[in-house]
Write a structure and sequence with these properties.
Length: 77
């Protein structure tokens, strides 16, 4: 799959939300285009926190966003 340069990317094509989800080994960061929770809300229990990204942060890599917005504290009980 060919990668487009970030300067060629339309702003509407970039993920709008930075989301922390419950992973097998703790919180995992993801970028989502929409906050669509899917049929039957199956994603809702997996979402720990989310943030709508400002337009200038939407092109940032996932690792940079994870450092900028650390994971929420998760209750292990």
């Amino acid at each position: 799959m060919a990668r487009r340069r970030t300067t060629d990317t339309d702003a509407d094509d970039l993920p709008r939300y930075f989301v922390w989800v419950r992973g097998l080994e703790g919180p995992e960061p993801q970028k989502w285009l929409t906050m669509d929770f899917g049929v039957g809300d199956w994603k809702r229990p997996l979402v720990l926190a989310y943030l709508e990204l400002p337009a200038d942060e939407r092109q940032l890599p996932l690792s940079a966003l994870a450092r900028r917005y650390p994971p929420p504290r998760v209750d292990l009980s």
